[in-house]
Write a structure and sequence with these properties.
The chain is built from six helices and no strands. It has one domain. It is rod-shaped, with a radius of gyration of 40 Å. With 187 residues, the protein is mainly α.
């Protein structure tokens, strides 16, 4: 034996050490192998969990913006009818024209001439430009979310990702299993 005392059941530390280049190679190989399995597994988890939620968020934002545009249209229409009502209280000519166009009434002392070539809106008709509508959500997120709606497909992808992550953790774990072996000397 050498001058060092050995404890029962433990091997000599010098016998357990691999040369530095071999240790670096094993460490690099474990790291690369772990990353090759773990990174796609984490990406699959992220896609399966986050993409459907992102598509739902886009849909909710679209519906909210659509309701805002409808609300703006209704507010503009309400304001236009308010202005028409105020104008009816102040302008007698407008009252006569609305009565002629809407109620088909004509004053006794006036002659009304209709020109069919002139395409004018009836008196009191309110036309307005609608508020701009939001862009319908689409793109790759919506397509991918539609493909991930199948529960069996989602479950399969989650199981695949969990298996790959567990394999990465167990196969490329710490090098304790290498420590008990002596290096082979070719000499």
């Amino acid at each position: 034996m050498t001058g060092r005392s050995m404890e029962r059941g433990k091997k000599d530390d010098a016998a357990r050490q691999w040369p530095l280049p071999i240790r670096a190679m094993f460490t690099t190989g474990r790291m690369v192998g772990f990353l090759v399995l773990a990174v796609p597994a984490i990406v699959i988890f992220a896609v399966v969990v986050l993409i459907p939620q992102s598509a739902r968020l886009q849909s909710a934002v679209y519906e909210r913006n659509l309701e805002r545009a409808d609300k703006a249209d209704l507010a503009a229409l309400r304001d236009a009818y308010g202005r028409l009502n105020l104008a009816l209280l102040e302008d007698e000519t407008l009252v006569k024209r609305v009565a002629m166009s809407e109620l088909n009434l004509q004053p006794k002392d006036e002659y009304v001439c209709f020109n069919p070539d002139v395409a004018a809106n009836p008196v009191g008709t309110i036309t307005m430009r609608p508020a701009p509508r939001p862009v319908t959500p689409g793109g790759w997120i919506t397509v991918l979310a539609n493909r991930l709606e199948d529960p069996a497909k989602r479950r399969g992808l989650l199981l695949l990702a969990a298996g790959a992550l567990l394999a990465a953790l167990f196969v490329f774990s710490a090098p304790e299993k290498y420590r008990g072996k002596k290096p082979v000397n070719p000499a």
